[in-house]
Design a protein that fits this description.
Chains A, B: One of its GO terms (molecular function) is branched-chain-amino-acid transaminase activity. Chains A, B: Its EC number is 2.6.1.42. Chains A, B: Pfam families: Aminotran_4 (PF01063). The structure is a homodimer. Chain A starts with a helix and ends with a strand. Helices cover about 25% and strands about 30% of the residues of chain A. The first copy, chain A, has 2 domains: about 160 residues, Aminotransferase class 4, branched-chain amino acid transferase, N-terminal domain (D-amino Acid Aminotransferase, Chain A, domain 1, 2-Layer Sandwich); about 160 residues, Alpha-Beta Barrel (D-amino Acid Aminotransferase, Chain A, domain 2), CATH 3.20.10. With about 350 residues, chain A is an alpha+beta fold. At the A-B interface, β5, α2, β9, β10 and α5 of A face β5, α2, β9, β10 and α5 of B. β5 of chain A pairs antiparallel with β5 of chain B.
């Protein structure tokens, strides 16, 4: 595998569908670009990758992914700067994490060379789909599914690694209010909560739909045993600003090791903002809200970037958070997006030129 | 929907592949019959079901099932008696349970009429695939997958309900030894453990593969919080015979409400065998094994029927279980299969003639 670029077989679309897309009115994750990256794992080996027109898969109804949820994914973004250069943000971390997720789900790891060469070639092909201007980006979805035709409950011997891309703007439109979980939970100790395993997400849909009916967009999950500790929001890690200190839960086997999360922690340290990475209790946050010490809550994730939370409810107690002039959420969002869009220095080498 | 039989569109294969199958050498869940049942959910309505040749699906790579594991399934079996009559076992319970699973996974419930008419017509079509003789059966796999093309983490608006069938013999060949879980776990309180959600199964593959390396076929999962309580085996509920009393964990939001499990409990009551449905601790089972009071452990599930367990390990302590002449496992397996194959009375009306 000395030159993986030679190893990728590319079939282009005869005509792009880009002219049919309204880039000013994008619903998140509904429109896909012209091409996709596909690599099959057969007989213990990842085969020659292909980039081909985005198209339906032909897959047996007995493929294990349908029955046993043996599937993992990643979320990444590509950004375009004013010089038409394309950038990604810490993509090595996504590669590492998809392999961590795969390991936990008994899926073979995907080679780094294929991952990066696939991304690079795919993004060059789709460069017109990446629009300039903060807020515009190309959402990139690498994922792996178990394709073997067999309905016994054991790991598959064949898999498909794919990358599909979707032009996006913001993930959450409007105000986001959250419910702190009291009964439902997202992950068990010793389970797969730290992995981007497909089933972790579907399992949240029903409790989240109940939250929607109460007027909340998201749930902040608490630990399954006691519901006393605030963990993550399922699509975002969560930060609490109490006074001028940021609090966030430590990563664990229940909590995703978010790339935006760790970037916020680094940026806080760079800017002399105190961060406490420790278990955060529901009761301390409610007390801080009552006393006025709780200034902000925000989510951090690739899709949402930084998402301010305007209020929360727990056990019938409702709290609204004030709009601040010196919001940390705005500060970190600006810092992060400046780096992502090549508008500022990048002291930690997070930007990756495609 | 007054006569659902009129509502199913049937396309038969031109030639059956049954002559290519060696029914004396079946690997579980690898061979599929000639036809499958398919029903699509579109615009809020389950559409006209179809029975068609078993064939690959054409499905978008952005279908939510691949990304968010929004998928549930059931396991059922059909049996043939000496008069060539086809029977199922408590299928109403499978229909109820797939809808309970669907509800938890934010999937629309599937109508009972379609479920039973689909099963009936499909099994009549596949009747030659159901072989006589105890141990032979047709494994039936209803499942639902989210098909909408959208990679935002929320419930799909389109689904596919399917039934595929696979001729089977026994699920576990040979001796089954188990490991009691000490670190990994299967389900969280407030999670989806009681549902046959696809992701519950894939999440067990890695810990189970570690158990395999230690010489154990399965894990008996313990509660995620303390690992002190024995719960289920992932593909089977678990019974412990201490003295002449059967112990099994109560159903909960972490434990599947197994149909074989509740049939065993009923048969025990019918036959004056004492059953205690209560939390069973690791320490009491280890103590009982040391004192000789622990006579048997067995699993109960549709695929495995009743599966005796010949030994277990916990925290480095290994225990072998004796072979008994008056085994409860054998007793219940005989009772159950006699009912399933129409060889005995059926006082509880569990048999369902197809």
């Amino acid at each position: 595998m000395s030159d993986p670029s030679n190893a990728i077989k590319i079939s282009k679309v005869s005509e792009s569908k880009i002219s049919t897309v309204d880039f000013d009115d994008l619903e998140f994750g509904k429109i896909f670009t012209d091409h996709m990256f596909v690599c099959d794992y057969i007989d213990g080996v990842w085969q020659t990758p292909e980039i081909m027109p985005y198209q339906p898969l032909t897959i047996a109804p007995s493929a294990r992914v349908f029955h046993y949820g043996q599937a993992v994914f990643e979320g990444m973004k590509a950004f375009k700067d004013d010089q038409d250069q394309i950038w990604m943000f810490r993509p090595e971390d996504n590669h590492e994490r998809i392999n961590i997720s795969s390991h936990r789900m008994a899926i073979p790891e995907f080679p780094k060379e294929f991952f990066f060469e696939g991304l690079t070639q795919l993004l060059h092909l789709e460069k017109d789909w990446i629009k300039k201007g903060k807020g515009n980006s190309l959402y990139i979805r690498p994922f792996v599914i178990a394709t073997e035709e067999a309905i016994s409950a054991s790991p598959a011997n064949s898999y498909k690694f794919m990358i599909i891309c979707s032009p996006v703007q913001s993930y959450y439109a409007g105000e986001v209010k959250v419910l702190f979980a009291e009964k439902f939970s997202r992950a068990a100790d010793g389970g797969v909560g730290y992995a981007k395993a497909a089933g972790n997400y579907g399992a949240q849909f029903y409790p989240t739909s109940l939250a929607h009916k109460q007027g909340y967009q998201q749930i902040i999950w608490t630990d399954a045993s006691t519901h006393e500790y605030l963990e993550e929001a399922g699509t975002m890690n969560i930060f609490f600003r109490v006074g001028d200190t940021l609090l966030t839960a430590p990563k664990s086997d229940r909590i995703l090791d978010g790339i935006t999360r760790k970037s916020v922690i680094q940026l806080a340290e760079d800017n002399n903002i105190k961060v406490e990475i420790r278990r955060v209790t529901v009761s301390e946050i409610k007390e801080a809200a009552k006393s006025g010490e709780l200034k902000e809550i925000f989510g951090a994730g690739t899709a949402a970037v930084i998402n301010p939370i305007s209020g929360f409810e727990h056990a019938g107690d409702k709290f609204d958070l004030p709009k601040l002039d010196d919001s940390y959420a705005t500060f970190f969002k600006d810092k992060l997006t400046d780096i992502q869009y090549n508008l500022s220095e990048d002291p930690h080498g997070w930007r990756y030129k495609v």
